[in-house]
Amino acid sequence: MSQTLRFLRRFISAPQAIGSIVPSSPALVDAMLEKIVWSRVNTVAELGGGTGVITAQINGLRSQDSRFLCFENDSDMHLDLQQKFSDVILEEDAIQLKHTLERHRIPGLDCVVSGLPLLNFSSTVRRRLLSDIHESLNPGGLFVAFQYTRQLQAFLLSTYDQIERHYVWANVPPAFVFLCRK
Ligand SMILES: C[S@@+](CC[C@H](N)C(=O)[O-])C[C@H]1O[C@@H](n2cnc3c(N)ncnc32)[C@H](O)[C@@H]1O
What we know:
Structural class: alpha/beta
Distance between the termini: 40 Å
Bound molecules: S-adenosylmethionine
Shape: globular
Number of helices: 8
Helix content: 25-40%
Order of helices and strands: HHHEHEHEHEHEHEE
Oligomer: single chain
């Protein structure tokens, strides 16, 4: 089964949790990752790996001795990611980011890449997760997230030292990419 069809089937069974109909387009994946200086990234986490379109790129770009944690809590997609990426640390619930980092004895992250449907989370969970992401980043660390609206922009502007926003038309649906530097 193609990645797109697999993703669509998961969307139909759990639309709120999956958050989009199809995986991110190559243009969106590029916009998410092109500004990251991989030689400076020792620890990276991806939140919401899906079928792995961003995971595959991160895995190809990161330095060999870096650590890469990918969170995906849909059991089918989690299993699939585990089979595809044996060198990636696969975890389940991104909401457990802080505990997971403690468990792996990772004191801080240089980069967090998120494809999570954050606006589908309850506001309490979303606030706590966004605050945990910010706390988990090392000074100078980068939080990269795509979203279909600008609803999180005010929060990101008030939390991060530098923000860049890009709009990617070539995606279904078109998406904003936020690059946020701590
Ligand atoms: C919009 S899709 C993005 C998938 C992929 N990153 C991409 O760009 O194609 C969001 C993904 O986040 C996952 N997800 C939702 N809530 C999650 C959570 N609490 N922890 C981990 N993954 C989650 C969904 O299962 C889905 O695969």
